[in-house]
Design a protein that fits this description.
By secondary structure, this protein is mainly alpha-helical. It has 2 domains: 182 residues, no CATH class; 116 residues, no CATH class. The chain has 17 helices and no strands. Keywords: Cell membrane, Membrane, Transmembrane, Transmembrane helix.
Length: 380
């Protein structure tokens, strides 16, 4: 009976994930739209789409399937041993979180430097040499974990200063949570910072006699920031969630002309033969849903897996999509698989409720269990 319930719950949850996945093309429309694509009136597009019974019906079925999947999972709790093993495996990688975050930020920055754009392929400046030096140097410092926190803060400062005059940087908004998380977590290991810290901390090394930075700056700063390291998952999921919502709305729903041109360019209706408008609306709403769930910290690892699948489809399914523009999001979503939702999340609230309920049930069972008979021998 329990096995059947678990299989049913797993099937319902899988169905919800598939419904959310089908019809979603997560590429930034700005990066892949064909030349000459014409904008379309947003209001006319949405009115026409939401007055088409098939589109509305399909979206309602998808929404109900997602709710059914979540409800079925909460009620049936399928595959508890498998889920526990997966979480334990992810927890084993926590000591490599800093390394993963550095790769997620460093690699696309190096690529941006070599290709001459600032964070996003849509933002170029009339200073190609400065852009190359910035991207390559910051990227390599992050990649090797040298002066990691300082480098992350510097890169974030440049992003925020350039943002008001170059709103196209919002297409790469994931750099904000990513760089903040790097500043919180530090270089981790393996990194140049870890090697230097080991040498500076050993009084027997010659290097320790000439490095005033480690004991006077690095150690006090790390001690001061340590209580805030647990907020890294919060920063990641909220920032990535905002990026998803922004991309889903602005790149899909608010740019229907370009989005429809992308659907035609890649002949996506041959993959799933539905109205092109359903592709566009389905992609936008799916990304927005993933963003909302990440911000709320609800089923974070599950929706991170959905996002992981979306990025995989984009990276390998669209031949001319700039892969490096998605590495940052790809890596940060992978980091969320390791960290989970963290504090201030629905997942944390739910885990506490389940733990409390289990404790109450255990205590009630102990109270109702009959006390063992006294087997102390007595004199006849």
């Amino acid at each position: 009976m329990h096995t059947n319930r678990r299989l049913l719950g797993g099937s319902v949850a899988l169905l919800a994930a598939l419904v959310a996945f089908v019809g979603s093309a997560t590429a930034h429309v700005e990066y892949v739209r064909p030349p000459g694509s014409q904008p379309a009136n947003v209001v006319d597009f949405l009115v026409a789409a939401f007055t088409t019974p098939f589109i509305v019906g399909t979206l309602l079925v998808g929404f109900i399937a997602v709710l059914a999947g979540i409800g079925g999972y909460l009620y049936l709790r399928p595959f508890p041993a498998d889920i526990a093993a997966f979480r334990a495996a992810m927890d084993d990688y926590r000591d490599l979180l800093g390394w993963l975050l550095r790769l997620s930020m460093g690699m696309p920055l190096i690529a941006a430097g070599f290709q001459g754009y600032l964070f996003s392929p849509s933002v170029t400046l009339p200073y190609p040499t400065a852009l190359r030096l910035f991207g390559i140097s910051v990227g390599f410092f992050l990649l090797f974990g040298l002066a990691t926190r300082v480098t992350a803060v510097w890169a974030l400062f440049v992003y925020l200063v350039a943002l008001p005059s170059h709103p196209g940087l919002l297409l790469a908004f994931e750099y904000v949570p990513g760089l903040l998380a790097v500043a919180l977590v530090g270089g981790g290991r393996p990194s140049a910072d870890a090697v230097i810290a080991r040498m500076a901390d050993d009084d027997k090394t010659l290097y320790s006699q000439f490095d005033p930075f480690y004991r006077r700056v690095a150690v006090p700063f790390a001690t001061r920031i340590k209580p805030y390291k647990e907020l890294a998952p919060v920063v990641l999921r909220v920032g990535i969630g905002i990026a998803f919502i922004y991309l889903g709305i602005t790149q899909k729903l608010m740019r229907p002309g370009e989005a429809l041109a992308v659907v035609e360019k890649y002949d996506l209706t041959a993959i799933v033969p539905v109205d092109p408008a359903l592709w566009v609306i389905g992609a936008g709403l799916t990304e927005a849903l993933v963003g909302v769930m990440l911000i709320a910290g609800a089923f974070t690892r599950g929706f991170s897996l959905v996002a992981f699948g979306l990025f995989t489809t984009t990276l390998f399914g669209l031949p001319d999509d700039p892969v490096v523009a998605h590495i940052s999001l790809f890596g940060l979503v992978s980091a969320l698989l390791i960290t989970g939702a963290g504090p201030y999340s629905f997942d944390a609230w739910l885990a506490e409720r389940i733990r409390t309920a289990n404790e109450v049930a255990t205590r009630a069972a102990d109270l109702t269990e009959p006390e063992p008979a006294d087997e102390t021998p007595t004199d006849d």
